Protein 1
Amino acid sequence: MSIADFQPLHSGSVPRFAGPSTFMRLPMATPEQVDIALIGVPFDSGTTNRPGARHGPREIRNQSSLVRRVHHVTGVSPFDQVRAGDCGDVVVNPLDLLGALDTISSFFAGVHRAGARPLVVGGDHLITLPVLRGITSEPVGLIHFDAHSDTYDEFFGNRYNHGTPFRRAVEEGLLDPKRMVQIGIRGAISDAENYDFARAAGIRIIFIEEFVERGIDAVMAEARSIVGGARTYVSFDIDALDPSFAPGTGTPEIGGFTTREAQAMVRALAGLNIIGADLVEVSPPFDPSGVTAMTGATLLFELLCVMAGSNAG
Ligand code: MN
Ligand code: MN
């Protein structure tokens, strides 16, 4: 099937409020049919505090009807560069955390075998771990936008939750800590040693204060140099944004990014070797206006644009 078969519904012929609710009004597809597979993972059983991210994919699909085709800065439509389609949701058992991780990793292994790059919508941040298990067997780089490092060891004796995915991924050899950068980290922590693992492993943590001092260009130039030209995954936790822009999330932290800063940072990923990306932690029950899901949908489009513009190898 050709690129012409994977165009979003045009708002000039089918109104935005009509038609089935798919990501960016794209056709439903199988991973075999597309270059970039948009996939929902409606799972939040890894949440340690306020839940609701399981409802993220459905609401982001809804709000993504606002996304248009052509990026206003580049003048390019990602839908003319790659075949992108909505490959549905990974159906997971919310009552079986470890079983859900296996289901998710098996699904993404299939996506990888099909030759598609995943663009994933969570779900809480734990889902990044099984996505990585599915798409790589050797350590890759990571650009991680978040208020939180998510490199804790355990909560309540549980090692698999949304505060631990990046520690597990390093331990499992899925991520190369020397090629990892976390941007936007902030907020009070439970214990003074909470960043010790990340620091000892060599993960570059850019706290929000350093970001404010140095600015987007310098920070993103450093982030690009840390991951280099080798295989890299991008993970965007919506709580990286300030809660005034994105209140609909389980673990908000004030003093975060503006939506404009987030857009500029994602655009600065252009040309990197991106094997997959995710947008996680949108929690519609805390998002009565829908603005957080709309912001998530727009950042998903920005991520799609940088992935479409660069080939992963
Ligand atoms: Mn996170
Ligand atoms: Mn977070």
Protein 2
Amino acid sequence: MSEANEEDFVMAFQDSCDKPALLLIHGFPLSSQMWEPQLEDLADFVRVVAPDLRGYGGSDSVPGPYSITLLADDCADLLGHLNVATPFVVCGLSMGGYIALEFYRRYPEQVAGLILASTRAGADSVEGQAGRDKAAELAKTEGATAVSAGMLPKMLAEHNFETDDELVDYVKEIMSTASLNGVVGALAAMRDRIDSTPMLGDIDVPVLIIHGADDQLIPVSEAEAMHNAIPDSELVIIPDAGHLPNLEQPDLFNDAVIDFLEELLEEEEEA
Ligand code: MLT
């Protein structure tokens, strides 16, 4: 784990080596620790950079307001600070996917390809926004862990939640590192994020969409809708996986990512 001193907070991150880069952006309310199987397996192919977003993991617990734009800029600042060669591949899971789409919107010239895992392109509905406010209130009155405790059973496929105690404990442990600032800030950022659907048809880099077949938080139909709207996209549905296919089925997830990266690198060499 390393630390980069940005202007107003210390951001922690994991970084594997000096090769074409892959940025891994974690979901809510997790940290770069969720990418452990990817940091282990993908580092042979690419330089993996996995930041802890502000308020999460080893990064400082900075007070809000947060926005998806700010979180995307934090990632851009970190990669700039590390002198990562551009363009690189940006991968985000769930909230990380919202940030990946925003990253593309803001810095398209830096992006060689996108991996959108367990995510959706649309904005929150009015009911969804009210749910974010309720969750933020709960975090303020009962602590950040009250929010994660409510989410935990939905993070994995039902079967995995019921049978894989080790994985459940691992996810719980990661969630326990989320700070109150991080949880409240990210809830507001997600509540106010813009609808990325109108941008999908204009994405002109290859996109890999990965989704767990049994995701209880974001239905597979959201992944299918993105696949239908993004011209150069591929959809991989991971069986026996819920919202965290990278942890529930790491080999299948990593194989899909490696195939995508190999194709992309081949295309770049030919160009
Ligand atoms: C996540 O896993 O990042 C969140 O569930 C996304 C969301 O709540 O919209």
